[in-house]
Design a protein that fits this description.
alpha/beta; 21% strand; 4 helices; single chain; globular
Length: 138
């Protein structure tokens, strides 16, 4: 049913992504699907990486450590942004097309009143792509 599952990953907040990462790995095992971990970073040094290349290397290592052994080599894609907080949705939408994902598994936050005027990342990805989006709450 699903051939390629995309999982947005923020290496600075892995503890908050435990459930969506587990769900994505379980679904990849069940459907024998390839996993692609996607990160959006900046060219400015951060607590995670000094450069986008270092971030890519860390994301690739993470992908190999956490992807299920289901016969598919995990992929890792990194997008460079001047302001990841502002550009995140646009890069995730672009990534869906770039990698040919047919399912996105992503973490979300608990709903707040602000969501009525500022929707969460998952709802924007679902509204602007033609793929299924599975949101996993913490």
């Amino acid at each position: 049913m699903f051939k390629k599952i995309m999982v947005p990953v923020d290496l600075a907040h892995l503890e908050a992504l435990e459930k969506p990462l587990t769900v994505a790995a379980d679904m990849a095992r069940h459907y024998h699907a390839a996993l692609c971990y996607v990160g959006v970073t900046t060219s400015q040094p951060s607590s995670v990486a000094r450069t986008p290349e270092e971030y890519r290397q860390k994301l690739q290592a993470f992908a190999h450590e956490h992807a299920p052994d289901n016969g598919h080599e995990p992929d890792a894609r990194v997008y460079n942004s001047h302001d990841p907080a502002v550009d995140l949705d646009d890069f995730l939408i672009k990534a869906v097309d770039d990698i040919g994902a047919d399912l996105v598994v992503m973490g979300t936050h608990l709903p707040h009143h602000i969501d009525a005027i500022m929707p969460a990342n998952g709802s924007k990805v679902a509204a602007h792509t033609d793929v299924s989006v599975f949101l996993v709450r913490p």
